[in-house]
User: Which sequence fits this backbone?
């Protein structure tokens, strides 16, 4: 912080040296002064940069990059949360994860959950967007209603839907009853708990997908559709040959975003099933929480977290590779 | 059979004389589908509100009773008796306001430096900030938890708040906006002798209100709904946020008392729902930012 008292270039201490540096030909010392002014400005800018960007960068270093590196280190330890002693096991935790009897089930559950939520949200979201892109009256209300769940607390939404799914007093069993169906044992019988969690995730995120698709649809030039219509193309044909291809960047963006958020989802599962029954709704993300904060195996959990991190990184890398040019970053 | 023509006429009142019904039918179908989708998507929230006003007898009736016989706030009173609901609400509001405010300030200041100042390693700093958008929070959770515990910050407001303050999203959005600001205005300000502080407050901030609103609203929503981190660092009821308090209520009252649990759920969701309904346009703009494809 000593730079605050930087002397002005015209100040007394500098004046003699400035004169001394001047060639004897008597040329004005303009270039020299300018570079001094530049130096002052540079120091001034550096000071302001420290002041303005410093706090945020410091927080990022301490609470994002430090833990990222430390987590990699922790994954090589056999260490329980809060325990004073730890033992170095190298890649032992990873080896254990790959051979653990539960790993296959967790990976399958994660895959089913991700494919069902991402796929479902994309298909239903596109359908909703196509519907709302027509000039129907009241579509603003429909859009608001569809998007509202996206802004709500995942945990609260989980509680609400747990009540909706109640096999005896819930609204879902009532509605199923209207079409002559018995309510499955949503809470207890596999695969229904997983189905339940997937439905809630879809309900919460559908509006987001629809809104992004809607923005993409509104960028599709109307004259292209008109031309297709004049050529006698059906609306289904126009959708397949014109609209969907033009929506490819949107589809890709949503695919990656939804995969990242689905792989990291926690609140809904915590509220509704706590990963159960018998681990049937335990995803990779949920098992990181469970291993570290329920079982206390922080070293092992860090290894699982690293596996999850690598999966997310792979998804992101694909995005960087193929979407960079289509999405504005700067 | 032109889809576009049908879309255009949609704005006109439904029954145009002489219009063959066959041409109107896809339209009726669209309206029916939209109505169905709206009801299906909106029903859970309506059901939540209705259920929170019902008595236990009405809640556990078969077949279901749709409307509460005489709406009562008993469930809310009982929830407030089981967990300190007023305190939780105050905690949530306080942490959301302070957290969102600090996030906006950090993002704004950082983006200003990245766009309007020249300093060494600027590209590196920018890369470092933006790359955090791709680092999933869960890999940082165990080390951050041990750090916060070591600092004695468990069950404190700063323990909930500080680790999540770093602003990557806000910095990114502000930077994008600042790059579009006309350089000439800032140069003129500089010639007038305005320092960075004055340039920031009298020129940059007033020209950035839409971005400010978007970042602030997105931060409000994420802070309010944040669950895993506050759930891990707090187990004293008087420091809990609303979603964490809901967990406490679920664990104590279980699913034996739906009315009480649902009343608390309304308290968690209603404030943010109101924010959404009032400021919908700006909030949606913020939440869908980043998807802008070119």
Assistant:
């Amino acid at each position: 912080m000593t730079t605050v008292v930087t002397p002005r270039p015209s100040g007394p201490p500098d004046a003699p040296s400035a004169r001394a540096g001047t060639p004897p030909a008597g040329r004005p010392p303009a270039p020299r002064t300018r570079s001094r002014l530049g130096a002052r400005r540079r120091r001034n800018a550096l000071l302001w940069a420290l002041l303005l960007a410093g706090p945020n960068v410091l927080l990022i270093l301490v609470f994002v990059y430090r833990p990222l590196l430390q987590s990699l280190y922790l994954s090589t330890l056999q260490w329980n949360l809060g325990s004073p002693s730890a033992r170095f096991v190298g890649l032992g935790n990873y080896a254990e994860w790959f051979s653990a009897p539960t790993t296959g089930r967790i990976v399958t559950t994660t895959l089913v959950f991700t494919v069902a939520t991402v796929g479902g949200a994309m298909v239903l979201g596109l359908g909703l967007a196509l519907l709302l892109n027509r000039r129907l009256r009241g579509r603003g209300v429909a859009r608001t209603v569809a998007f509202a769940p996206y802004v709500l607390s995942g945990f609260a939404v989980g509680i609400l839907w747990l009540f909706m799914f109640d096999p005896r007093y819930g609204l879902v069993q009532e509605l199923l009853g209207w079409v002559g169906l018995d309510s499955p044992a949503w809470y207890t019988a596999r695969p229904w708990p997983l189905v339940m969690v997937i439905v809630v995730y879809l309900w919460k995120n559908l509006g987001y997908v629809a809104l992004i698709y809607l923005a993409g649809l509104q960028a599709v030039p109307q004259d292209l559709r008109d031309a297709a219509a004049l050529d006698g193309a059906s609306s289904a044909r126009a959708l397949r040959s014109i609209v969907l291809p033009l929506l490819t960047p949107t589809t890709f963006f949503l695919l990656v975003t939804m995969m990242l958020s689905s792989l990291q989802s926690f609140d809904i599962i915590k509220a509704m099933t706590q990963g159960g029954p018998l681990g049937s709704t335990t995803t990779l993300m949920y098992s990181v929480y469970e291993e570290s904060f329920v079982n206390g195996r922080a070293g092992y959990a860090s290894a699982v977290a690293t596996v999850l991190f690598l999966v997310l990184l792979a998804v992101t890398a694909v995005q960087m590779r193929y979407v960079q040019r289509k999405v504005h970053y700067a | 059979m032109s889809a576009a023509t049908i879309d255009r006429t949609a704005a006109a009142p439904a029954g145009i004389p002489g219009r063959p019904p066959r041409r109107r039918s896809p339209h009726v179908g669209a309206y029916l589908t939209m109505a169905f989708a709206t009801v299906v998507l909106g029903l859970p929230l309506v059901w939540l509100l209705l259920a929170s006003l019902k008595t236990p007898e009405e809640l556990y009736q078969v077949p279901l009773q749709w409307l509460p016989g005489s709406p009562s706030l008993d469930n809310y009173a009982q929830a407030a008796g089981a967990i300190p609901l007023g305190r939780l609400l105050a905690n949530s509001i306080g942490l959301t306001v302070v957290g969102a405010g600090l996030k906006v300030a950090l993002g704004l200041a950082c983006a200003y430096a990245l766009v309007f100042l020249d300093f060494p390693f600027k590209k590196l700093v920018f890369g470092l900030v933006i790359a955090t958008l791709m680092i999933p929070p869960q890999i940082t959770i165990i080390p951050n938890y041990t750090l916060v515990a070591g600092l004695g910050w468990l069950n404190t407001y700063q323990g909930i708040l500080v680790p999540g303050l770093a602003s990557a999203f806000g910095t990114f959005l502000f930077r994008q906006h600042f790059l579009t600001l006309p350089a000439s205005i800032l140069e003129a300000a500089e010639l007038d002798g305005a320092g960075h502080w004055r340039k920031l407050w009298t020129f940059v901030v007033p020209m950035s209100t839409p971005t400010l609103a978007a970042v602030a609203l997105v931060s409000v929503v994420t802070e309010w709904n944040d669950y895993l981190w506050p759930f891990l660092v707090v187990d004293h009821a008087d420091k809990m946020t609303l979603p964490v308090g809901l967990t406490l209520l679920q664990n104590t009252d279980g699913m034996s008392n739906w009315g009480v649990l649902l009343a608390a759920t309304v308290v968690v969701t209603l404030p943010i729902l109101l924010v959404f309904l009032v400021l919908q346009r700006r909030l949606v703009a913020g939440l869908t930012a980043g998807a802008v494809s070119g």
Q: What stands out?
A: Chain B is about 70% helix and 0% strand. Chain B has a mean pLDDT of 86.
